[in-house]
Amino acid sequence: MSAARQKREKSTANSIIELVIIVAIALGLALGIQAFLIKPYKIPSESMVPTLQVGQRVLVNRLGTHFGDPEVGDILVFHPPKGAENGLDQCGVDHPSDQGCPKATPEKADVNYIKRVVGVPGDTLTVVAGHVIRNGKRESDSYIAPCGEGGKCDLPKPLTVPPGQYYMMGDNRGYSDDSRYWGPVPKDWIIGEAFATYWPIDRIGLL
Fold it and tell me: Domain check: are 117 and 58 in the same one?
């Protein structure tokens, strides 16, 4: 075998090895970004209509909530309390029927939910016709769908959000299984904030 041919074969082998290394590094970075920074999430239900439609895809910032506290209006992906995945009224304590659930069950579920923060620690909340009254003032809620007559649309008895926990509600107030039924969510159960939508194409943008 000529020296020139050996050189060409060696160069080809080196190129293949280099390509494999680059692909492996790129794959590792992609998996790392998804695991620790950004995670895609598919909307599974109509609870966030009209803001988010069933099947729409969003990007979730997994890092932000670890360095700061969520704020009212943020859309979060999180683990609900254990039992929430089995249906409604999985509150951790007995409470009046005209009050939202004030305390969750002590363990988190394995499933992920997406809802909007309507109350932060220390807030006093009631619900009137699906509108959250927070510390005596109605939320600015042009994004919600009307609540209708069912689905815990009126909860006039106040509750106070416990320290380190957040009250979550879907924008589709009459069709959302949320904190009204199973209580506030501890910060440790929050996965991250949904900050952008990337599918379908005609809905690409920031949230």
Answer: yes
